[in-house]
Amino acid sequence: MPNLGPTELIIIGLILVLLFGAKKLPEAARGLGRSLRIFKSETAKLRDDDETETATATVVQAQPQPAAPVPPPITSAPVSPLSAEEQARALEEQAARLRAQAGVPSTPKTQ
């Protein structure tokens, strides 16, 4: 890629001013700076999370895990042309059954 000289930069600047207007350029630059700052902080957090995950993963692997109860397999109902209300009702019933198996109190219906 060839180097940009001062005349090329001036031409690019004039084109940007013509496209966006003099009032919106500072706002766009601020927005770009903020989003770049957010992006950098998020990538730094991801790196920190990866480092802590690898450290905790080695600790977790060293400890034996107790056997957890295996939940019953989720079986899907046979495909039939149901209305949206019937599908929603069936899903609510299935969710209530799963909550009862897990011991989570169900919330009362509001209709």
TrEMBL record:
<keyword id="KW-0472">Membrane</keyword>
<feature type="compositionally biased region" description="Pro residues">
    <location>
        <begin position="66"/>
        <end position="75"/>
    </location>
</feature>
<keyword id="KW-0812">Transmembrane</keyword>
<keyword id="KW-1003">Cell membrane</keyword>
<dbReference type="GO" id="GO:0033281">
    <property type="term" value="C:TAT protein transport complex"/>
</dbReference>
<protein>
    <recommendedName>
        <fullName>Sec-independent protein translocase protein TatA</fullName>
    </recommendedName>
</protein>
<feature type="compositionally biased region" description="Low complexity">
    <location>
        <begin position="54"/>
        <end position="65"/>
    </location>
</feature>
<dbReference type="Pfam" id="PF02416">
    <property type="entry name" value="TatA_B_E"/>
</dbReference>
<keyword id="KW-0653">Protein transport</keyword>
<dbReference type="GO" id="GO:0008320">
    <property type="term" value="F:protein transmembrane transporter activity"/>
</dbReference>
<feature type="compositionally biased region" description="Low complexity">
    <location>
        <begin position="76"/>
        <end position="85"/>
    </location>
</feature>
<comment type="subunit">
    <text>The Tat system comprises two distinct complexes: a TatABC complex, containing multiple copies of TatA, TatB and TatC subunits, and a separate TatA complex, containing only TatA subunits. Substrates initially bind to the TatABC complex, which probably triggers association of the separate TatA complex to form the active translocon.</text>
</comment>
<comment type="function">
    <text>Part of the twin-arginine translocation (Tat) system that transports large folded proteins containing a characteristic twin-arginine motif in their signal peptide across membranes. TatA could form the protein-conducting channel of the Tat system.</text>
</comment>
<dbReference type="InterPro" id="IPR006312">
    <property type="entry name" value="TatA/E"/>
</dbReference>
<keyword id="KW-0811">Translocation</keyword>
<comment type="similarity">
    <text>Belongs to the TatA/E family.</text>
</comment>
<keyword id="KW-0813">Transport</keyword>
<dbReference type="GO" id="GO:0043953">
    <property type="term" value="P:protein transport by the Tat complex"/>
</dbReference>
<feature type="region of interest" description="Disordered">
    <location>
        <begin position="46"/>
        <end position="88"/>
    </location>
</feature>
<dbReference type="InterPro" id="IPR003369">
    <property type="entry name" value="TatA/B/E"/>
</dbReference>
<keyword id="KW-1133">Transmembrane helix</keyword>
